[in-house]
Specification:
The chain has 465 residues and is α/β, with parallel strands linked by helices. The chain is 30% helix and 22% strand. It has helices at 62-65, 68-73, 84-114, 126-131, 220-236, 250-260, 267-271, 280-291, 298-305, 322-327, 348-355, 374-379, 410-418, 435-445; strands spanning 2-7, 16-20, 25-28, 54-56, 79-83, 136-139, 145-148, 151-157, 165-173, 176-182, 205-209, 241-244, 274-278, 316-318, 334-338, 362-365, 384-387, 390-393, 397-400, 427-431, 452-454, 461-463. It holds the Pfam family RMMBL.
Length: 465
């Protein structure tokens, strides 16, 4: 049996792992590359899509699901296994991604034609994305799904996003049985709304993410108070607060936190501020979050039992049309939550264009910013950035609240591994992280595990005995 690392190796995005047995080839995830490695999406898959039997999907985020339409476009016709909530989210997210690919291709083509260059084709279209829905299979948590007499798998809750999963796979080959587990993206402890990650009993091989493998998050309660203070102080100064947030996951969690008002003294001040949610995808995702209450944690269910709406409040306005979005350009002293979370596409770029040069603006990052993205460049302190081809000075106040991220920090990652009941591994693979984060997690793991810990490079292949 072999495993090939076709993405998220030496980088955070593009999650994709090829497992090859004597009789089967299958993928865990098929995600899009983002940031400064985006051009990898245009390279051929390092396998023939027609030879892939099925895909197991850890969750719906585009860096884990975003190349599924390309897989089908190139001949794959197998089943994609995912949790029910993930299936619903994939439906809207891939459609939105297809729209973005079409829009970006048209914009780049227009610029290239002016220079006498050839047009650009989109990676895939909305129509391509819709094909994926016909092949989705809904699987439950904590129940074995049998592929054949030699392969079965189980989903465990990863606590990262609605429907996110750890994947435990049993494979029988050459009269041996091995268990290989993919952590997917492990969630930060006590993420609003959804449950904490579950533990697993045993695995021979482990593939674990390392997004925050070299960092510890601050207290969520303290950083929520910081969020309130930034908002209140910025609005008092007449400025706008811009919050780039992933449409699915971070947006809902930010709304939940704003709705709960941890510091009761700030409640009245926050009630007098206008909040605008400007993301068509986030609007659709809200409906899916409300549908899948089986994924909610005890706190959220308790609030619902008291008839408290956890995702809406009176001074939250959900933007419906492009015209309403454009009208926000004239507003002052408001909070705008918009996507994409890494500022690479979507309406957030328009709001940055109209606000980033103002000294009384505050931009608050609440999710991971991959290398090479506009969000990362702003967060790293660049004083001038290009938005829609126009160079802009960065005068805004820039903040990061990493504890609102959906990813476990170093402590959370180590805690999960240490709680695997029979922690005797044959090998651990550290993926889905930048070099420093992956190296640090590897070193920390080596302090207490007895096996070899590998950091695979892109397209590395390993034999699994």
């Amino acid at each position: 049996m072999k495993i090939k690392f076709c993405g998220a190796a030496g980088q955070v995005t593009g999650s994709c792992y090829l497992i090859e047995t004597n009789k089967r080839k299958f993928l865990v995830d098929c995600g899009m590359f983002q940031g400064n490695v985006f051009d990898l999406n245009y390279e051929p898959f390092p396998f023939n899509p027609k030879d892939v039997d099925f895909v197991i999907l850890t969750h719906a985020h585009i860096d884990h699901s975003g190349r599924l339409p390309m897989l089908y476009k190139q001949g794959f016709r197998g089943t994609v296994y995912a949790t029910s909530a993930t299936c619903d989210l994939v439906n809207i997210m891939l459609k939105d991604s297809g729209h973005i690919q079409e829009f970006e291709a048209k914009w780049r083509t227009k610029k290239r034609l002016r220079k006498g260059l050839d047009p650009v084709e989109p990676l895939y279209t909305v129509e391509d994305a819709l094909v994926v829905n016909d092949y989705l299979y809904r699987a439950s948590y904590n129940k074995w799904v049998t592929i054949d007499k030699n392969i079965e798998f189980m989903f465990k809750d990863a606590g990262h996003l609605l429907g996110s999963a750890i994947v435990v796979i049993k494979i029988k080959e050459n009269k041996r049985e091995n268990i290989i587990t993919f952590s997917g993206d492990l969630g930060n402890i006590d993420i609003p709304i959804i449950k904490n990650y579950e533990y697993i009993d045993y695995t021979d091989y482990l593939v674990i993410e390392s997004t925050y493998g070299n960092r510890f998050h601050e207290s969520r309660a303290e950083e929520a108070k910081s969020l309130y203070d930034i908002i209140i102080n910025t609005v008092k100064a007449g400025g706008n607060v811009i919050i780039p947030a992933f449409s699915v996951g971070r947006t809902q969690e930010v709304l939940y936190i704003l709705n709960q008002y941890i510091d009761i003294e700030k409640k009245e001040e926050l009630k007098n501020i206008e909040f605008y949610l400007d993301s068509p995808l986030a609007r659709e995702a809200l409906e899916i979050f409300e549908k899948h209450k089986e994924c909610y944690d005890e706190e959220a269910l308790n609030l619902l039992s008291k008839d408290i709406d956890v995702l809406h409040f009176d001074n939250l306005y959900i933007v419906q049309t492009a015209e309403e979005s454009q009208a926000l350009n004239e507003k002052q002293g408001v909070v705008i939550i918009s996507a994409s979370g890494m500022c690479e596409a979507g309406r957030i770029k328009h709001h940055l264009k109209h606000n980033i040069w103002k000294k009384n603006t505050s931009i608050i990052f609440v999710g991971y910013q991959a290398e090479g993205t506009l969000g990362r460049r702003i967060l790293d302190g660049e004083k001038r950035v290009k938005i829609f081809g126009e160079e802009m000075v960065v005068n805004a106040n820039i903040y990061s609240i990493p504890s609102l991220s959906g990813h476990a920090d170093l402590g959370g990652l180590l805690n999960w591994v240490k709680n695997i009941k029979n922690g005797v591994f044959k090998k651990i693979f550290v993926t889905h992280g930048e070099e420093e984060a992956s190296k640090n997690l590897k070193e920390e793991l080596e302090r207490f595990v007895q096996c070899k810990v590998e950091i695979p490079k892109l397209y590395d292949e390993f034999i699994i005995d």
